[in-house]
Amino acid sequence: ADLMSGGDLTGLPDAANVVFMAGAKFGTSAAPYQAWAVNAALPAAVARRYRDSAIAVFSTGNVYPLVDVAGGGSAEEDRPDPVGEYAMSCLGRERVFEHAAAAYGTRVAILRLNYAVDLRYGVLADLAATVAAGEPVDLTTGHVNVVWQGYANEVALRSLRHARAPEAFTLNLTGPETASVRRTAARLAAAMGTKASFTGAESGTALLSDASRCHGLFGYPDVPLDTLIAWQAGWLSRGLPLSGRPTKFAVRDGRF
Fold first, then answer.
1. Cα separation of 240 and 234, whole Å?
2. In CATH, what number does 17-237 get?
């Protein structure tokens, strides 16, 4: 279905459980209205259509500000302070679904994800591709959170059991490490039989989340960072395909 067709979505099938993943990010700096239409207006229509369902809503850690890399990351109770219109529109998505929980009694779980790793896409794919191309890795954003996509999928489905009203259930979803970009790139390079080069210096702040609540509920991710790095290096070494869509995790001004 074309969710942006302007219809009322009544043609969509009934469902007791819904995972909402629609969103717009890349290219929205040139057309910010697209971010707001997809990320904030569309959720209102979906919330009306599925007001009697449990809804797991994918959001983003971008609703938080950049934080001190030594501080352990933003926690769910921290005040959102999004940088840029993409992040603002994602907070708008959250607020619309929170309204549905308060006004309709819709059971809602909001998942603030950063950054999921699929071997075709993700921060590790970005770093490995940069290293493989012989290009320097920019260290300005020197720390990052990553998590295996399979774990993110599992948490999304299991979070439906925690969806609540009239207050939505909100959860940070990422891995347990504050991963060093420099160290991760060097380990990827070593696994691919080459060396990494670098440019810039690590900033004292980054987009980081504390996902300890998630790990307490659902356990630690079953694929650790060491394994993800080995998988990613092997993927590129075998010439397997990438999505061609960089995460732009190093962006610090919110313009995607």
1. 9
2. 3.40.50.720
